[in-house]
Specification:
4 helices, 451 residues, rod-shaped, mainly beta
Length: 451
Amino acid sequence: MPRNPSTGVYSKPAGTSPSIGQIIDPVPWNALTTDLGNEITNSLPRDGSAPMTAPLKLAGGTVSAPGIGFASTPQTGVYLKGGGLLGFTQNGVDVAFDNDLVYATKTGDYTALAADDNAVHRFTAAATLTLTAAATLGSGWHYVVIADGADVTIDPSGAETIDGAATLVVPNGYSTTIVCSGSAFFTNKLMTKILTKADSTAVGSFIDGLLLSNNTGAPTTHVDFAAGSARAGSSFVSSAASFTKRVTGTWAVGTGNGGLDAGAVAANATYFAYALRKDADLSFDVVLSTSATIGGVTTTLLTGFTLVKCIGVVLTDASSLIRAFVMYPKDEYTFVTPVKDAVSAAISTTSALLALTVPNGVKVKAKLRIQFTSSATTNAALIHDPAQGTLTAGIGNDGGIAGAIQAASNYAIGSGDIWTNTSKQVRQVSGAAGNIWVWTDGFHFPCGRNA
């Protein structure tokens, strides 16, 4: 056949270019007409009345001059990209399409690659997902992470960030879509919105659970916090499991680690426990501080955490060990061993302050038991809130919580729950001179527990 199958160029058979007066040889002329008939038959009809019988081979084209175009819009069509990839162009602009969605299960750490564009990976165990450099993945690269078994930590390359942070944790039971800008990574924020919904819509202040107790294995140095949640205004944090901190070290993230915001554990000290929320993943932690207010907590070690609310208090003894205590609902503490804060101490008609073993820096309601004796045959002892000013003990005056002595040097007993001042003190006074014993059984330190 005269058509070259490689180039498509048609060449007439020899002997089919006659001159004037030459007698035409029917053999080459018949071959020519046969070839022309075959070529017309093998040509693609413009009206589409017949299909191709072999692959249609086109010019590769470019984004501005595609191999397949349109007469009215020649810059719209299909062209061949580099690397044998098919490209689509509209008015000379390349049109991008997603790769096929690919699903895979991961059981451990993984590095997301450029080939994972539009992939959905379900992690069934704790894992770190390392992201290839954003410049390598390119703008528009996107990837879905499902945490279905444990938390998944997303860790961008080098100093690159995700949602502005060095890492992002997808908690177990949640998912997120990661998008690359070419220089950083972002998520669709859905997970964050779900996790912070309570913060953005709720107000109030409360503690549910999170009861404190001496740790069973190390009761004098470690304090346990039961599962629960805490809110202060719009800030909320919760813990599904018990948590432990120790007073013998400065704060470090995680259960069982040091809890002090600064310094070393001190004797006869008060340590307030504050619930923390990690900004990156909203997880729970606790810091211990001698400050009675959030504003006074030393935050040097707490970068990336938000102080939510004071959830309790622990006291140390003269040996810098945590006093054994039992905590009950509604923020009530009872010492396992009652503390004798007065032993045959003098008491008189002159009102005086009495220091107790209770938290320092806050007002608490001390749980007191007293014993009183006097050489006067009729007498009464009164212990009361310093906020009441100076009161006078005795019948017909301001009363008392122990007395009246009917026999000289006999004993009377009494009890009461008395509010202190912020210096751990109550006031004491009697109708006549005498001596008093005071046992502190514990205290109420209201943090917001209703149960």
